[in-house]
Amino acid sequence: MSPRTSPACHAGTQDPLLRKAVPVFAALGDETRLSLVALLCAGGALSIAQLTAGTDITRQAVTKHLHVLAEAGLVRDVRQGRERLWEFEPSRLEEARRSLDAIAQQWDQALLRLKARLEQ
């Protein structure tokens, strides 16, 4: 535990909801993967060619990023004829959002306790 990490923060990693969200946050921590998720959210199911159009990123690099996102449960591939399309899977992101909501609630409670102590 680092000097800047409180015991309460360390204990939060034991929360199953938070632990389950770790791969999602790790996958989204990369700018390219976050951009791919944004594209898929806005454009529906897209091919690798569509995802790389107008970028300097190779198809091979995008494929690797998509596999990381798929392992985190954020995207999935679907076959359409001979083509493989990638689409966003919102359920895992919703789970991650719930874990952030839980953290926000813990902070709100801590701030209320601090406020109460300061007002005493």
- Helix fraction, binned, reads 55-70%
CATH class: Mainly Alpha
Note the total helix count. 6
Q: Going across the major beta sheet, what is the strand order? A: 1-3-2
Task: Return the domain count.
Answer: 1
CATH architecture: Orthogonal Bundle
What is the number of E strands?
3
What is the CATH superfamily?
Winged helix-like DNA-binding domain superfamily/Winged helix DNA-binding domain
CATH topology: Arc Repressor Mutant, subunit A
End-to-end Cα distance, whole Å, is 32 Å
Main sheet overview: 3 strands, antiparallel
Order of helices and strands: HHHEHHEEH
Which spans have pLDDT < 50 for at least 5 consecutive residues?
1-8
Based on Cα principal axes, name the global outline. elongated
Class by SSE composition: mainly alpha
Backbone CA Rg: 19 Å
Assess the beta-strand content as a share of residues: 5-15%
3D structure, described in words:
- This protein is mainly alpha-helical and 120 residues long.
- It has one domain: Arc Repressor Mutant, subunit A, CATH 1.10.10.10.
- The protein is built from six helices and three strands, in the order H-H-H-E-H-H-E-E-H.
- It starts with 6 loop residues before the first helix and ends with a helix.
Task: Identify the notable features of this structure and list them briefly.
120 residues; mainly alpha; 67% helix
What's the topology here?
Blueprint: H1 7-12, H2 16-28, H3 31-43, E1 46-47, H4 48-52, H5 59-71, E2 75-80, E3 83-88, H6 90-119
